[in-house]
Structures are given as structure tokens and as C-alpha cells.
Design brief:
This protein is mainly α. It is built from 3 helices and no strands. The longest helix is centred in the first third of the chain and has 44 residues. 5% of the residues are buried.
């Protein structure tokens, strides 16, 4: 292997190691987020509150779009990502109310 190829392979490994660490952070962060939303869902179920809060959801999407611009992340991707998460949270809240 040439020196350039060896150096490229080492850089590739560093990038992939970083990606692996970030993936772990994402998974643990999502798990913690869902623990919090489960607590919210239980509270809503106990007090007969609706599983969905469209006004808050819209504010959260707006907030995430702003944050994504600040972070130089595609706002449309961020919106799709949060919309998916919100739909999962609502699904969990609906299950808790059954």
C-alpha cells in the first residue's frame, strides 16, 4: 500500500470511529428523550389529557428548524426527523390511554 493510501485508510478509520461514537450518543439521547415523553404520556393518561398537543408540536418543529439552521443542518431533514419522533411519542401516549 502506498503512503497516501495508508494515510487515507487511517483518516477513514478516525472518521468512522467518530461516527460510531456519535451514533451511540444519538441512541442514548433518544432513549432519554423517550423516557421523558413516557413520563409525560403517563401524566396525560392519569389526568385524561389528550395524547397530542398540536400547538406545542408546531412550536417544537419551528424551534428545531431554527436550531438546525444554527447548526448548519438541513432544516427540512430536521423537520422530518422531529415529525417522525413526535408521531412515535403520540403513538406511545395513545397506547398509555387504552
Amino acid at each position: 500500500m502506498s503512503t497516501d493510501t495508508t494515510r487515507a485508510a487511517a483518516l477513514l478509520k478516525e472518521h468512522r470511529d467518530s461516527i460510531d461514537r456519535l451514533d451511540a450518543i444519538l441512541v442514548y439521547t433518544l432513549a432519554e428523550r423517550f423516557k421523558q415523553t413516557q413520563a409525560v404520556g403517563k401524566l396525560k393518561a392519569e389526568h385524561d389529557l389528550p395524547p397530542s398537543d398540536p400547538h406545542r408540536e408546531a412550536r417544537q418543529i419551528e424551534r428545531l428548524e431554527w436550531l438546525s439552521k444554527e447548526a448548519d443542518l438541513d432544516p427540512e431533514f430536521a423537520k422530518k426527523f422531529l415529525t417522525f419522533i413526535i408521531s412515535e411519542v403520540i403513538r406511545h401516549h395513545e397506547q398509555l390511554q387504552k
